[in-house]
Amino acid sequence: MLIYLLRHGEAAPAIPDPERPLTADGARKLRGAANTWATVVVPPARILASPFRRAQETARILAEAVHFDASIETSHHLQPNSDVTMVLNLLREASLDRLPSIAIVGHQPLLGILLDMLLTGAGAGIPMATGMLVAVETGSPSSLLSHVRLILSQEDALELS
Questions:
Q1: Burial of 15: CB neighbours in 10 Å, binned 0-12, 13-18, 19+
Q2: Could you give the CA distance from residue 35 to residue 15 in angstroms, rounded to a whole number?
């Protein structure tokens, strides 16, 4: 299974945190990066996003770029400090259902911990910058241990578009 991990774009300061929108510049940069995503991302079978506003906005930009026609699913398990085992359970179910691909749109530190778990099983965390897209691929439906297929910073994606 191909798993895309996308960290939300630059967000405006706001309280409470779940209501922080993307900044105008953050949305502009994501839309620019999306031009590259359209050429390297196979449309996922599902897109799951954190309920936080900035992640929802980022997920919509991804969905538009890759011509994703289904609804974006919201998961409270994708909040910044959620338990990574809940996300691993979601991915395990998707893998066992033989889903070809899935995209997860969320936040640090959760995405970095998830990425480390998928690659090494350790879960110490790998930093992901805003707007960074990482694709990993599992070896079999019975295992989530993955290898890297793509790492694309927002800046690199902008340069390539």
A1: exposed
A2: 31
54-94: pLDDT as tens digits = 999 999 999 999 999 999 999 999 999 999 999 999 999 99
φ and ψ at residue 94, rounded to 5 degrees? -65, -40
What is the Cβ-side half-sphere exposure of residue 10, based on CA atoms within 13 angstroms?
Answer: 13
- The total of structural domains in the chain comes to 1
Q: Is the pTM of this model over 0.90?
A: yes
Which domain does 154 fall in, by range? 2-160
How many secondary structure helices (H) and strands (E) does the chain include? Answer: 5, 6
The whole-angstrom separation of Cα 136 and Cα 3 is: 5
Q: What is the CATH number of the domain that holds 47?
A: 3.40.50.1240
